Amino acid sequence: MGISDSTGPDQPLKRSSVIAVVLLSFVTLGFYLPIWFLRRRRGLNSLNSPRKLGVLGPVILLGLQVIDLFLPQDLTPETIVSLAVFITVLVLAFRVRFILSDHLTSKIRAVLPVSVGFPTSSSPSNLLTFFLTIWYLQYKINQFIDESRAWTQAGTVGEDPATAETTSRAGYQAAAPDGARVNVQLI
Question: What is the DSSP string of 102-119?
């Protein structure tokens, strides 16, 4: 299904089709969710974030899904296990959301140290993470990969801000607190 598109040695995350992720989620009756977390774990853990995604969460999710599959639908334990599956998916999704957000914030601080208060337009939404979980997170990962490629082409990835001011004419676009976009040109 064309799931991976390598992004280079300095980019540990892989691009995946959001449509393929949605289809795999439905075709596998939700069993793709823990696989999605496990397959992206190494890439997410290599990002610049103090938070990490462990193996235990996705394994617990898989175990709960297996238990939920074999319980009769009319019983209270099945309802409790279904609720546990839902909560586990949300905990894992928000863990990934926080990892991505931490990494994006560190990238912005490296180039624009005074922009600490500016939320970026790339920062994952809490509301969309809650409702769309891995589908939205895969979209944000793909967006992150595309933006990282643009930074690499502009020559600003990994540069010291002082050096970037003298060696690069690349700009960065951030979102101001009122939602307006702010263009910053590094000269």
Answer: HHHHHHHHHH-GGGTTPP
List, for residues 54-105, the tens digit of each pLDDT value: 999 999 999 999 999 999 888 899 999 999 999 999 999 999 999 999 998 8
Kindly report the pTM of this predicted structure.
0.75
Is the separation of the CB atoms in 173 and 151 below 8 Å? no
Count: domains in the chain: 1
**Helix or strand (DSSP H, E) at 128:** helix 126-154
Give domain status of residue 164, yes or no.
Answer: no
Amino acid at site 3: I
Rounded Cα distance between 43 and 103, Å, is: 12
77, 96, 103, 79: which is closest to 33 by C-alpha? Answer: 96
Could you tell me if residue 67 is inside a domain?
yes
